[in-house]
Amino acid sequence: MPNKYWFKPKKYGYGFTPISWEGWLATLFLVGLILLSARSNNFFTSEISTAEGFGFLLSVIALTVLFSLLSKNKIKGKLGWRWGDKKSK
């Protein structure tokens, strides 16, 4: 069975965007994990400590890096910085 891609590289910048229902499901799962992290670090309360804020920030970074590493083989093309379409003059 051929490799089905879930994501395609963004046109500008670094990253990728979902192109299949599996990609959208994986992205929604990531958002859910980030929301759970926010709730566990009291991010939605009016009084959040500095430690909780840094804990949330570190968890978002870790989840994003892990998500990118796990999704690397499901991206149509290479992951890297993009400047848009390069038009020759």
Q: Can you summarize this structure?
A:
This protein is mainly alpha-helical and 89 residues long. The chain has helices spanning 21-40, 50-71; strands spanning 7-9, 12-13, 16-18, 82-83.
Write structural notes for this entry.
The protein has helices at residues 21-40, 50-71; strands spanning 7-9, 12-13, 16-18, 82-83. The protein has two helices and four strands; from the N terminus they run E-E-E-H-H-E. By secondary structure, the protein is mostly helical. The protein starts with 6 loop residues before the first strand and ends in a 6-residue tail after the last strand. It has a domain at 21-75. It is elongated, with a radius of gyration of 17 Å. The strands form two sheets. Strands 1-3 form a two-stranded antiparallel ribbon.
